[in-house]
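Chapter summary example: a protein plus iron/sulfur cluster.
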Amino acid sequence: RDLVKTFPGRRSRTGRPGAPVRAVDGVSFDVGAGETLGLVGESGCGKSTTGRMIVRLLDPTSGTVTFDGTEIGGLSQARLRPHRRDLQMVFQDPYSSLNPRQTVARIISEPLLVQGESAAAARKRAAELMELVGLIPEHLDRYPHEFSGGQAQRIGIARSLATSPRLVIADEPVSALDVSIQAQVVNLMERLQQELGLAYVFIAHDLSVVKRVCDRVAVMYLGRIVEIGDKAEVYGSPAHPYTRALLSAVPLPDPEAERTRERIVLLGDPPSPADPPPGCTFHPRCPKAQDLCRTERPLLRIAGPGERQAACHFPEV
Ligand code: SF4
Ligand code: MG
């Protein structure tokens, strides 16, 4: 609820501290048990920072993170420990997130050893997890570089599952992988979700990756959610101009539909969160911007039938 993360601003050349940067600026959402929420937006929009705050790899500047009725956003690391089992994270780059000097057995066991499990029990569990993610348990004593990118990400997934979590934050888990193996890893994550009853927050920079896996989707722009709702509603009739633009870049399978479709090309790059535009922060790039948009910040509110919300003065409904 109302998650905010502020980073100190860069110092100027004269040594004066810059204005603090609000990387995440008041983000709220829920994730149900066994559900997948897609969290989508361009790089730098705050989606990874949001994910890291949920698992407390980063401390929120303000706001709350409630897991199963317990507020964990403000707990000390010591008091957080019993909850650590329930919340785990899969990272974008499998190689840089796996310690190259540790064996796979050690990497996958780590979260269990932290929880006080014995070395023998942790190793046995690591072997089971290797099997669960489609790897060969006999390869436990190998090192990360001996695996392909797809296999390395399976190791990252196995590690995230070691403590039998109930929520996994997957931060662009396939974007560093070859296109040909992305589907295999997504399939694996779907199967694991069904078998283990996991909930996912699936972070991605475009809407096509999460289309298959998510139940609901939230679109972020410059540290805020600009649209959130059921997959069918958001993909079927996007209400926010930014969502429409992102969706118009997703290729359609039918060549004729692809040729005749509406294409919205956004001008320029997202503005810097250090110096956000006034009013609607999307207005410099929005094809529908009007005077009101330059002065008044639109808040998230119900747009159209159902539960879908959009932060736009002139939503498409
Ligand atoms: Fe565009 Fe205005 Fe809506 Fe912002 S509030 S997305 S500028 S139409
Ligand atoms: Mg990121």
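Key point: The mean pLDDT is 93.
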